[in-house]
Amino acid sequence: MPLIKIPKHYLISQDEDFITIDIPESMLLDWQKDYEKISKAKGILKHKKAAMLAHLDNLRQEWDK
């Protein structure tokens, strides 16, 4: 779950379970774009994980020599 910093002047109310804020839609759109980029990067890295780990193992073996 991503962490988001929001200026206090957007805070409307808060209680034990919820925080209610009123933010401009433009901020939401920016966050959505950023989240999509992060999700895409995670997907790319997930598919290349085995290759990256094999490469790191090769590098470690070269350093150990």
Fold and architecture overview:
There is one protein chain. The protein is mainly alpha-helical. The chain is 62% helix and 11% strand. It has one helix and two strands. Strands 1-2 form a two-stranded antiparallel sheet. It is elongated and about 60 Å long. It starts with 10 loop residues before the first strand and ends with a helix.
**Largest sheet, if any?**
2 strands, antiparallel
Q: How much β-strand is present in the residues?
A: 5-15%
Mean pLDDT: 85
How many DSSP helices?
A: 1
Q: How far is the first residue's CA from the last residue's CA?
A: 42 Å
- Which spans have pLDDT < 50 for at least 5 consecutive residues? none
Compute the number of strand runs: 2
Shape: elongated
Helix content estimate: 55-70%
Query: In terms of structural class, how would the helical and strand content be classed?
Result: mainly alpha
How much is the radius of gyration in Å?
Answer: 20 Å
The ordered H/E elements are: EEH
Q: Strands of the largest sheet, in order across it?
A: 1-2
